[in-house]
Each structure stands twice: as C-alpha cells, then as structure tokens.
Design brief:
- This protein is mainly alpha-helical.
- The radius of gyration is 19 Å and the shape is elongated.
- Helices cover 66% and strands 0% of the residues.
- It has a single domain, classed as Tetracycline Repressor, domain 2 (Orthogonal Bundle).
- The longest helix is centred in the middle third of the chain and has 27 residues, at 114-140.
Amino acid sequence: MRYLPKEEKRKAILEATLNLAASCGFAGITARKVATAMGTATGTIHHHFSSLSELKCEVVRYALEITCEKEKQAVKGLSPYEALIQLLLPSNMPDREFDTRVWNSAADEIWRNEAFKQEYSRAMRIYTGNLEAIIQRGCDEGAFTPVLSPRQCAWKLLATAFNLSDYTYLEDPDFDIDTANNIILQDIQVTLAIQPGDQTKPPQAVKNKTPR
C-alpha cells in the first residue's frame, strides 16, 4: 500500500473495515482481514486503533457520517413529505443492499460487545433524530397532524421501512419492492395523518447502484 498521511490512512482502514462488515459481518472482522484487504501489515491496524472493539465502534460512527451526509444531499430542497418518501421507500435507497448488510450485522454485534452496543445505540438515536426533525418541520408547517410525538413517529416509520425493506430479499412472489413501497407510503400517510388532498407528488425512485 502506498504511503498515506495519518488521517488518510485511518480513513482507508475505516473504509476497508466497513466493506468487510458488509461482506462478512462485524463478527467476522479481524485485524488480519482488514490488513489483507488494504494490502498492508497487521501492525498498521494496531498502530491506529488500540483494539478491534475500538475499530468497530469507529466504523459505526464513520458509517453514520456517510449515511447522514448522503441523505442530507438527497433531501435538499424537498418538502417534509417528499423528504420522508425519499428516505424511507426502499426503491429510493441507492445503496440499499450494502447498507442493509452493514446495519443488520451491527444490530447483531451489540449482543457481543457492550462498547459497540453503546455506539450503535447512539448512532440510531442520531439517525432517528434527523428523521424526527423532518417530521417536526412538517408539523410546524401544518402538513402533518400526528397523534404520536414526532420522535415516536420517527421510530415507528423507521421500523416499518427497515423491516419491510429486509423482507423484500426473501423472494416471496407476493411481496416485492413495489409492495413494500406502497405499504410504507400508506404508513407514512396514516402515521402523520396526511389527507389525500394534502399530498404532493412523491419524487421518482432513483435506480439502485451496485453496493460498494
């Protein structure tokens, strides 16, 4: 591996580890595997991270940072309703398979690593907070009139969207991504008490890119 400044080397380690999380899960990550993926010595990993646990926790922070920035750009200029559709409908998730593998593996890892659990929980609270802010904006503008609090709405909608997105991989002929989209869209409308006449035309789905 060519020489990289300290911060660039650290980022390269995080990127390699994130890709391993998607391919073999957090449970399958070792310093040797990360070093092999980078074409460098195992000592390089230990030089930048004091433990494998620290590396995994840092990867969760890194993954959250990437996701938040990507989604911030995706919803720029959209109304709250359009923003929710952009973020929650599976067909609008460009890196859906990659992200699903990473975050499902992270959810499994919390049962083996208390420090990781704390970091994962923090990431989920921040991510939910971003969705909550969109919902709150819709409430302030009079577009949403939910019974639940914006925070509770955010958790409910995320649970529906993430779980239904996962189920589309089960290859049930009666449940595909379009079906998931429709169910999630209905849940958004019911949860936020959006009347049919108040809806704006949702943005078109973006084509899924090949996972990194």
